[in-house]
Amino acid sequence: MLVFRNSSSYDRYWGGRTNLQSIVSVVRSLSRSFLIWGPNENPQDREETERVVKCLVAILFAVKNYLRGNWGIAGYDPSYAELIPAGLKGHESEGLGLPQELCFVVERYIKRGAVRGAFNAPQSAMLSGQVNTLICSFGTMETIKLTPIPVCHQIHQKQVLALYCCVLPFCLVKEMGWWCVVVIVMVCFTLYGIEGIGEELEDPFGEDKNDIKMDGCRVWSPRDRVAEFGVIFASVFGY
What we know:
This protein is mainly α. It has helices spanning about 1-35, 45-65, 100-115, 120-145, 150-175, 180-200, 220-235.
């Protein structure tokens, strides 16, 4: 039972991390395509492209807030307020998360670019496919968040573990004498430690020390994505 619990918990942890990286890769790829192939012939077009790229960065932060239960725009750090399109409101209580809303903005930009001829048919299909990949990765993380290990399994595991640790001394005391105390302490420490690891890894999206580093990790941090795209804007658009 402990092996099943730990294996399931680590699969959830690893699945959360790989899907986060998948979202980051999609954001980078879409941003590059929009900045290079998007409709950027005049200042208005460039302003729209910049706004959509900022929406892509905002998706990262929206995913983090959604998984941590900080729903709505109010959950955002003020430094990210400029990334959100004016007038956009979260509707999580109605079943529509902010990441999906931002993806609508991105998808509309792809459609407008295809209509105007900036993206040909294969390009627009590829870009839409990447948005679908982003949504699928977010859906997988949402499944991890909303589907914990069943309570009945957790309760039964604790009961079996306590029963085993209570019965084990009676099996060892006749042969080991007082040495069984040391052995029992080591066994209990090991088994309960393994159980604790499983509980710690079960929800990988929190703010505990052992959770996925969604704030400080430079690989994923939305703040670093803002700086990254700021450099790109300067090199592509000259500001």
